[in-house]
Amino acid sequence: MAATAVADETLEAVGGNTITDAAEFGAVQEFTATLIIRRFDPDVDDEPRWQDFDVQVYSTDRVLDALHKIKWEIDGSLTFRRSCAHGICGSDAMRINGRNRLACKTLMKDLDLTKPIYVEAIKGLPLEKDLVVDMDPFFAAYREVNPFLVAHSEPEKGKERRQSIAAREIFDDTTKCILCAACTSSCPVFWTDGQYFGPAAIVGAHRFIFDDRDDEAQVRLDILNEKEGVWRCRTTFNCTEACPRGIQITQAIAEVKQAIMRGRP
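Below the sequence we write its predicted structure tokens.
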């Protein structure tokens, strides 16, 4: 699809120099993109349906920007979650062209704009409306693994619980989780088994199991040793590929399995 420069043919550069070829200096490009969105309104629809929208987007836009344009300029009934728009809150996880991604971190220019862009809600969780799913089962599983520090002793008065750099490095990767559910909702076991804790819950447990300031690692290992715990993982690496934070989730699950086998972290 042809692209046209947004910038005028002649631009005044900083310092008074005239730029006649905007493209040479990386001018922002404008495209027409087609988004095909899987819609569902429980008050109207018996089953989800697909609806397409044509929007003008810039090369610097993200999929979230395109969704905003649709909602603000075309169809205000389009429903989706978003908050920080900077890949930290984890609110806008969705399936984009069949892959779990954060809409705020997916640039339009990185997608093939000669073809429609398919957007739908993440899988495995109850669909509420359009791109919004019920996150309660996800957070319920997360809470079950006690994802918080449990210490049986008090730190010295006026002191923090100290930890060496080496000790922190052991679990540093799993501290990056933003609870977006991209990993859990990409897991085929989770799709078919609603009782499976899922990758995000195991990542949350890993973060404290290997924290040497915590005193209840064994409790979490016992929880994850149940039939719906780590042994349901089939090591398909879907979760690792889906994680927008780059966490090595499959490796973390394997480390929890090894800790269970050893009987200690």
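The beta strands are 4-5, 11-12, 18-19, 29-39, 49-58, 93-96, 99-102, 117-120, 127-129, 132-133.
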